[in-house]
Amino acid sequence: MAIGTNIKQNLINVDDSVLIVIDIQDHFLAKYDNTISQPVVEKAAWMVKLAGALDQTTESENGENKA
Question: Which of 36, 37, 52, 66 could form a disulfide with 29 if both were Cys (CB 3.0 to 4.6 A apart)?
């Protein structure tokens, strides 16, 4: 896929990158209107999916590695 390859090569150095996603919990999101909280969840999900598309290993809270 040419677009993914260009992103991986031109915008970021994957070897020098770290993505940390903090657990997003309902009781924290409930403090905000859905018009604010929903985009936060969507953007976090997009970033995790992007890391996966760039072949970055993700690790869950229990230490389990996921590709």
Answer: 37
